[in-house]
Amino acid sequence: MKPQDDLLKKIIGHSKEYGFVYPSSDIYDGLSATYDYAPYGVELKNNLRAYWWAAMVKLNENIVGLDSAIFMHPTTWKASGHVDAFNDPLIDNKDSKKRYRADVLIEEHAEKYEVKIRKDIDKAVKRFGDDFDEIQFRATNPNVLRNQEKIDDINDRYKAAMDKDDLTAVKELIEDLGIADPETGSKNWTDVRQFNLMFKTELGSVAGESSIIYLRPETAQGIFVNFLNVQKSSRMKIPFGIAQTGKAFRNEIIARQFIFRMREFEQMEMQFFVKPGTELEWYEKWKEARIKWHKALGLGDENYRFHDHVKLAHYANAACDIEFDFPMGFKELEGIHSRTDFDLKAHEKHSGKKLQYFDPEDKESYVPYVVETSIGLDRLFLATLTAAYVEEELEDGSNRLVLKIPHALAPVKATVLPLIKRDGLPEKAHEIMDMLKFDFNCQYDEKDSIGKRYRRQDAIGTPYCITVDHETLEDNMVTIRERDTMTQERVAISDLTRIIGEKVSMNTLLRKLV
């Protein structure tokens, strides 16, 4: 078993056992690629969403929020190009009967060469230390240059094939690279064909073509069709943005790797409307802002990288991904795209309504260009668990499993623990709970030994454990234990709200962004 596969299996098992994520419809043996967020999972998910929303809307005077409907007029998706062009290249293996995305097979093959490059770089870092120059090394090292040439050749061939919509050339690339079924090793492939990802359903009581409607495959179009409504009612001037979070649905060819790729998922998107000609400048600004937002979480700067798109979408003139080092390797976490004026002009054409902005300074009307940032909340959740999951060997030789979730995002901020279940300690612990619960999500736990309770809270990522003992009844002091360092300190009950608040406030993250 590969180490990264092992880590993903551990995260999946831990998520179910400790109440973060359950397989959906579990009593019926589950439903492929659908999951339910459990008690601690929903808290973590809400905190991640709140961090994104505060950073986008609260900290930016020129960004406002929206919550558009999942169901939209079907012409919306004709205008956006989804009906005709929202496809993934599909390929089947004739022997295993497994179905794959052709582009993912090619990307994963190219990634093998990037892994080799990374290994050479890591060796050079150990050898040269502070004198190491990665840029020069990448430009001169023969092994790196050879592997980079292979990556570039793969990308160039794939881009050329997709630009021409030449699916035969895509299959030839897979065959020339010797790509095998990841599970069986078979290279007996079918032809590549396009597969539309939208879910269809029917609206109303009468079935037929006129009643066909789609589950939205992205949240962005709800923003575009409301562009003028928001601009006028909020009295916004360009440049300004509209932020939205919500469910989207895609009939993925193959949905696997836990919550990384699902058919029902949640997006957090912001569309930033700018004056034509300034979009690439704003594209660079938002790239910088978004990577700063991610790194403020403290999940490890080395776990992020930018990846420019090999093939641009039909609406874009620049696009990149922020990739995270998941248990499956570096994969897309967030996309940043310069979408030009494609969407607004398409909706103008299909609706017959003008979607233009009158610029009071230049005294002219124009269709704005758009820079988009789009992040998958479920993928952010998985990234957080990936970085937080730690198995530690302690000084006494024992082991503990701890989720080192950033304090501000932890599902439970503090747990109150009476040392024993008698002598008035539970009553005193409940008094402390009643004091803290107005400011923090807290837990009360009196079952098992204090050591086992500490381990249970470590496993769900609780930053602080507050122990009530017999001395507490005399001096109104408690022992507070910090999760990561396991240090313990005796503090006054009256200081608990201040001490915990300083450490778990969302502002500790947000202040890093300004």
TrEMBL record:
Protein's UniProt keywords contain Ligase: yes
Organism, scientific name: Cryomorpha ignava
Family that this chain belongs to: Belongs to the class-II aminoacyl-tRNA synthetase family.
Keyword tags: Aminoacyl-tRNA synthetase, ATP-binding, Cytoplasm, Ligase, Nucleotide-binding, Protein biosynthesis
Function: Catalyzes the attachment of glycine to tRNA(Gly).
Domain of life per record: Bacteria
Gene Ontology cellular component terms for the protein in this record: cytoplasm; extracellular exosome; microvesicle
Gene name of the record: glyQS
Sites where the protein binds substrate: 101, 218, 265-269, 372-376
Places the protein is found: Cytoplasm
Residue ranges annotated for the Aminoacyl-transfer RNA synthetases class-II family profile domain, each copy included: 198-418
Pfam families to which the protein is assigned, alphabetical: HGTP_anticodon, tRNA-synt_2b
Positions contributing to ATP binding: 250-252, 260-265, 332-333, 376-379
Assembly: Homodimer.
One of the GO BP terms on file: glycyl-tRNA aminoacylation
InterPro entries recorded: aa-tRNA-synt_IIb (IPR002314), aa-tRNA-synth_II (IPR006195), aa-tRNA-synth_II/BPL/LPL (IPR045864), Anticodon-bd (IPR004154), Anticodon-bd_dom_sf (IPR036621), Gly-tRNA_synthase/POLG2 (IPR027031), Gly_tRNA_ligase_bac (IPR022961), GlyRS-like_core (IPR033731)
GO MF, one annotated term: ATP binding
EC number: 6.1.1.14
PROSITE patterns, per database record: AA_TRNA_LIGASE_II
Protein name, per record: Glycine--tRNA ligase
Coiled coil: none
Swiss-Prot/TrEMBL catalytic activity: tRNA(Gly) + glycine + ATP = glycyl-tRNA(Gly) + AMP + diphosphate
